[in-house]
Each structure stands twice: as structure tokens, then as C-alpha cells.
Write a structure and sequence with these properties.
The chain has 166 residues and is mainly α. The chain has nine helices and three strands; from the N terminus they run ααβββααααααα. A three-stranded antiparallel β-sheet has the order 1-2-3. A hairpin with a 2-residue loop joins strand 1 (23-26) and strand 2. Helix 7 crosses helix 9. The model has no long low-confidence stretch (mean pLDDT 87).
Length: 166
């Protein structure tokens, strides 16, 4: 769930299709390359990996998967990419007693967008992180690497989660 919160992916199938080869450093920044995101061409994008995920050992987890010969970030999701969405919406939220039409898996995306705005992240960079603006266009207008700028802005987001290490 933390990956969904910190990346703003549209659904669990975007992460279910995440190939380990698409988690790497680009311009010195650890990123997810959402090459298999399917909504539109803009949804195929780089999303910097938030420093909080690094502190929690996510990059070590990825390296261990690569060493073990896995090719997908979540190999157990491969047969049914939407199973996490379904579990979250139909079981988890129901068990918590907070299931409504407004509270669904997609809320992770809304929560990230809200926190980016609260953190003062410029709208154009928020759009680039979320896949609502093409990232390659930004390099023409911005005098720095769009990926480094996106990472710096994304890392302004602090969810204040009660997790040791954060």
C-alpha cells in the first residue's frame, strides 16, 4: 500500500506489471519507469522513488528480488493484476467499516495529489509526477533535470505515518 501512496499509481495493476528492470537510477535518482502503464501515453512515465521508501528498505528489497531471479516486483500478482484493488475495495475497507463510493483504492492517488499541493509543489511538477503532463516537454522549459526536480518536490511530501524509520 505504501508504494501506491508514494507513487500515485492509478491501480494495483500498474504495480503488478512493474518489471524489476524498470526500477533503476535515472539521472542519479532512483525511479520507477511506468512503461506498462496503460491509460495513455502520458501515463508511461518516470516516478521518483520517495526517500521514505528507501529508508524502509525498498531498494534493498528490489535488489534481493533481482538476485533471486525474479523479473516482476510482485510476481504473486502476475496472474491477477487487479487482485489488490479488489481486496482493498471489497474486503479491507469493508472490514474497517469505511467502505463508501468515495473511499476506494484510487484514493491513494488523490491523497498523493493533495499532499503534493499542501507541500507547495508547483502544479506542473505535480502533473508530471502523476502522468497528467508529458515529462519530455518539461525539459525544454525547465533548466534542470525534470527527474531531479520531481524527486526534490516529491520528497517534500511527509505523510507522518506511524512507521518506525520514518
Amino acid at each position: 500500500m505504501l508504494l501506491m501512496l508514494y507513487t500515485g499509481v492509478r491501480n494495483s495493476s500498474e504495480m503488478a506489471r512493474m518489471k524489476l528492470e524498470n526500477i533503476y537510477r535515472e539521472q542519479g535518482v532512483p525511479v520507477f519507469y511506468l512503461a506498462d502503464a496503460s491509460k495513455n501515453q502520458g501515463s508511461k512515465r518516470f516516478v521518483p522513488i520517495h526517500d521514505d521508501l528507501g529508508r524502509l528498505g525498498f531498494l534493498d528489497y528490489v535488489e534481493n528480488l533481482k538476485k533471486s531471479g525474479d523479473t516482476l516486483l510482485f510476481p504473486e500478482w502476475a496472474k491477477r493484476p487487479d487482485k489488490v484493488n479488489d481486496w482493498f475495495n471489497d474486503k479491507y475497507l469493508v472490514e474497517l467499516g469505511i467502505k463508501t463510493k468515495q473511499k476506494v483504492f484510487y484514493c491513494f492517488r488523490h491523497t498523493l495529489a493533495t499532499e503534493l499541493a499542501r507541500s507547495g509543489v508547483p502544479r506542473e511538477l505535480t502533473k508530471m509526477i502523476s502522468g497528467h503532463a508529458p515529462q519530455e516537454v518539461a525539459s525544454v522549459y525547465i533548466q534542470d533535470s525534470p527527474i531531479r526536480l520531481m524527486a526534490a518536490e516529491l520528497n517534500k511530501v511527509k505523510f507522518g505515518l506511524p512507521i518506525p524509520g520514518l
